[in-house]
Design brief:
The chain is α+β, with helices and mostly antiparallel strands. Helices cover 37% and strands 29% of the residues. It has 3 domains: 33 residues; 131 residues, Type IV secretion system, VirB10/TraB/TrbI (Lipocalin); 63 residues, no CATH class. Strands 2, 4, 7, 8, 9, 10, 11 and 13 form an 8-stranded antiparallel beta sheet that branches. The protein has a two-stranded antiparallel sheet with strand order 1-14. Strands 3-12 form a two-stranded antiparallel sheet. It starts with a helix and ends with a strand.
Length: 234
């Protein structure tokens, strides 16, 4: 009986060992088929926003997902398939302030999920967007001096339009002689009006808040790789 049990134990051990060996061999075979392809730094990738973010709806640490909108190829091999998910988080948020200071939001890209299911670090920055600041954040960029410039131009336009009107009307009588009198007088008369507008609007702009900045669901943005991306491929 003991001999039979010993024989059975040996057979069982052999089966377990053989199965483990086959499994390891298969695992090695699968791993041998997985390679990596490098997507060079500077590559521009288009991403669709899956989770809306913005200076009025996001807080620091909020996570968001984006989706690659088109295949990225290296040596005619699809390294980043369309539909791949990029995940990130909100790194900084500023709400609009008075003096027309606009809201801003800074995005941090954490990783991209490869076709093999692996999470690969994703170092990228926003590009080709009119709202990008010099340090890479998104901002409405509206500031007090922008509003000041606009108010100055509007005040100037009041005077210019008034003078042009007087010049045109004066040109209709007495061979245009009245225009040489009407135009200067109109400039003098319109200047206080323009000045009142300028002062009033400038003071009002001091207390106005800037606008929020948002990336809405479905919107497409572009990012540029800051570091090479080594993606696993079969």
């Amino acid at each position: 009986m003991k001999k039979i049990l010993s024989i059975l134990a040996i057979i069982a051990a052999f089966i377990v060992f053989s199965g483990a060996e086959v499994y390891c061999a298969a695992d090695k075979q699968i791993n041998a088929n997985i390679k990596t392809k490098r997507v060079p730094s500077g590559t521009v990738i288009s991403l669709k926003v899956l989770d809306s973010v913005g200076s009025n709806i996001s807080t620091i640490g909020d996570q968001f997902d984006l989706m690659v909108t088109e295949n990225i190829k290296v040596d005619n091999i699809v390294v980043i398939p369309q539909g791949s998910v990029v995940r990130g988080a909100i790194e900084a948020v500023e709400t609009p302030q008075i003096l027309y200071k606009g809201g801003s939001v800074r995005l941090y890209f954490d990783h991209i999920v490869s076709s093999t299911g692996k999470q690969v670090p994703f170092y990228a920055g926003l590009c080709n967007n009119q709202y990008i600041t010099f340090d890479g954040a998104l901002s409405s960029k509206t500031k007090y001096y922008d509003a000041f410039d606009k108010t100055t131009q509007n005040s100037k336009n009041i005077i210019v339009k008034s003078v042009n009107w007087a010049w045109d009307k004066g040109d209709e009588f007495m061979n245009g002689i009245p225009k040489y009198v009407m135009a200067p007088l109109t400039a003098i008369i319109s200047t206080p009006v323009a000045g009142t507008y300028f002062v009033g609007d400038t003071i009002a702009d001091v207390f106005k808040k800037g606008k929020n900045i948002n990336l809405n669901q479905g919107e497409v943005i572009q990012v540029q790789l800051l570091k090479p991306l080594d993606m696993p491929v079969y």
